[in-house]
Write a structure and sequence with these properties.
With 208 residues, this protein is mainly beta. 13% of the residues lie in helices and 50% in strands.
Length: 208
């Protein structure tokens, strides 16, 4: 007589599948983490004399008396990742999100996803102390920046490819071997010149 798998066997297989699915989901969720805790600058290091502080759960960068470049860099390095940040430019707003960077004093090498006033290429990629602008968004995409309001920027770096989004709109896609060969800190910038104030919140990263 031919024997068939018992109901218990089917249930055991199903339970095992569900357990593995839950474990896989949990592992993916663990890869997403907050880089800013909304309370203090734990996990970050200040470079330069410009102001970095927490106000009402927001991370604030503000020009100081020296009106020089300033950076707030992560203590850890990141290579392949998807970073999401929200920012609001309260004054001027010439800032940026650096990746694969290294900082000595206020000299930074690496690549910047631009955060700037209207029509100044927010979402473009600039190579600091290197080739300069690698790519700028098309002119018609400049409209997606909401000056003085909260904006959401997403930066995805995977191997040689970088893609940025602003408020849900893809701004650029760039393929560059030099970027793919590097790793380094993520850093926020205050541009020189003074008069800059930007708020940041919900800074989250997912490793790829």
């Amino acid at each position: 007589m031919k024997k068939f798998p018992s109901l218990r066997c089917y249930l055991s297989t199903g339970m095992l599948f569900m357990l593995l699915l839950c474990l896989a989901t949990s592992t993916r969720a663990q890869k997403t983490q907050a880089l800013f805790n909304g309370k203090n600058l734990d996990g970050w290091k200040i470079y330069g004399t410009e102001k970095w502080y927490v106000d009402n759960g927001n991370l604030v960068c503000e020009s100081g008396p020296d009106k020089e470049y300033g950076y707030l860099g992560t203590e850890k390095d990141y290579k392949d990742f998807e970073l999401t940040v929200e920012f609001k430019q309260e004054a001027n707003g010439n800032s940026g999100v650096f990746f694969h960077s290294s900082i000595e004093g206020t000299k930074i090498t690496g690549w910047q996803a631009e955060v700037a006033p209207p029509n100044m290429h927010t979402g473009g990629i600039y190579e600091s102390y290197g080739r300069g602008w690698l790519i700028q968004p098309a002119a018609e995409k400049e409209q997606y920046l909401k000056m003085g309001e909260w904006n959401t920027m997403k930066v995805r770096v995977k191997g040689n490819q970088v893609t940025t989004w602003l408020n849900g709109h893809e701004m650029i896609t760039l393929t560059d071997d030099k970027i793919g060969a590097r790793t380094g800190q993520i850093a926020l910038q205050i541009h020189s010149g003074g008069g800059i104030k930007v708020r940041w919140r919900n800074i989250r990263i997912r490793t790829l």
